[in-house]
Input
Amino acid sequence: MHDEQPSDRIILGGAHLLNRTFSALRAIEHIAPNEVRRPAIRTRTIDLLYTPESLPDLRKFAVRSGAT
Output
């Protein structure tokens, strides 16, 4: 069994990738608000929550998307 942590999938790209990922999630929310409730998007949001980087408004987004 592989013990991959959620943040392992995106932390390798560093802060720039984290910011780009979160920007893309917010763009999805803006264009198609119901899409952020899809399991894959919620999973990506949870991944972001487990990273050591702090992203402004991420927790609010996670609540809106149903990730938390």
User: Anything to note?
Assistant: The longest helix spans residues 14-31.
